[in-house]
Fold this sequence. Notes:
The chain is of the alpha/beta class. The protein contains 14 helices and 20 strands.
Amino acid sequence: MLSLTNPALLKSGSYIDGNWHQDNQHLGVRNPVNGELVHTIANANAQNVVTAVEAAKKAQKAWQQMPAANRAQLMRKWYDLMMQNQHDLGIILTAEQGKPLAEAKGEIAYGAAFIDWFSEEAKRVYGDTIPAPAGDKRIVVIKQPVGVVAAITPWNFPNAMIARKAAAALAAGCTFVVRPATQTPLSALAMAELAEQAGIPKGVFNVVVGDNARAMGQVLTTHPDIAKFTFTGSTAVGKSLISQCASTVKKVSMELGGNAPFIVFDDADIDAAVQGAIASKYRNAGQTCVCTNRIFVHSKIAEQFSEKFIAAVNQLTVGDGMQEGVQIGPMISKQAVDDVDTLVQQSIAEGAHLALGGERHPYGERYYKPTIMTQVSNQMAIACNEIFGPVTPIITFDDEQQVIAMANDTEYGLAAYFYSRDIGRIWRVAEALEYGMVGINEGIISNAAAPFGGVKQSGNGREGSMYGLDDYLEIKYLCMGGIDR
Ligand code: NAP
């Protein structure tokens, strides 16, 4: 049993139309540290999703018509409650997802920051007037909410991936139905509890938790009352959901997989690059979409960088995320550990050198040792695939054009990082990298004020920032005629 200051945050089933669905409780949520049961919840089905969509449809007009300042106040209250309950929310998140508690609490603050940010943006949905080509006409542009928004989110950020979407949707005047990942429903339900406490009207924010992703996803991508579908997850699943959305021509935004390059030029501050690489690679045991996937180091400094990097990674503490000082927790499943190990063994067979780790960690079956491979080539499977685990391949390069070509040689385009102190190079490389986000002398780039999103097969749309509302708004053009009559 989780030890929470506010036990009301631990819910046992979906939140639909302001009601808690707690019958049919047989879906177990397990702690990835040891597989122990954390909580059992009601397992919702596709029909429950339909009910949630109908509730969201019913609630939408009133929510849209509520003055933006009032919507903003409710959202601000939601934000305050999330921060007041940050510790408990962190405990729930660590228990179901595994990341260290300090990181989990960081995720709560990060997710809440989007609610805060968009509570402000709600008040700034401005329109335009446009000079008309004819004297008797006037052109006015207003922006209106798209309507009901449906979302499917992954397990690696059980709070923030929902907050980033829901905050923008609610601020725009949309209502929202989310189906979180099967492994991490509790954080989503705790958010719903706080939304209810904040006074967000029933039907505006709905969370449907169940393990039949395909059937529930079918409703969320095809129901005619849903105007927009937003997804965070793998590129493979994202592609099939996009095609499902085609049948009703939904507005779609996608936050998909990545294969982030991290380039260290020979003029870089090597110590800063080591710290940046650790922060961007080993956070969440390497299970983030913006995690460094390939480190490229200039051959002149490769030895120096690798030595320092290996020494620093070797210091990372692996264990149960609930324990103070632990930096790397479990991976989400045994299958995830197996997949990472297969990539590591394959790259060794292809000629890579194992510099650190390279095997399962004795702490438990969902643990993998922080691993570093050198003598890797950009063609090896470990460099071409999203690793999604605590494993770093290091590739050397000799010149700027070559490393840009290698960095861009992937179907993905989410985040990239590089370290250099040459201002000319900084502009050239920043402009040449085919990625939606570029960290320059920085390994942690995401925050509510910045536009998060990818290009190529990493997705479309942006979350957060002054651009983040656009995906939830329709532009309506009003043509006013007969002005001179
Ligand atoms: P996933 O397999 O695509 O799952 C993501 C979500 O989709 C889960 O809720 C999952 O449900 C659901 N799902 C899976 N198959 C489905 C289907 N056929 N129909 C409807 N829903 C379906 O991704 P993952 O492996 O859990 O998450 C990691 C991936 O997410 C990585 O590729 C990572 O890069 C990406 N990601 C991207 C961002 C970003 O902002 N770009 C952020 C975080 C993660 P179940 O849980 O029931 O399987």
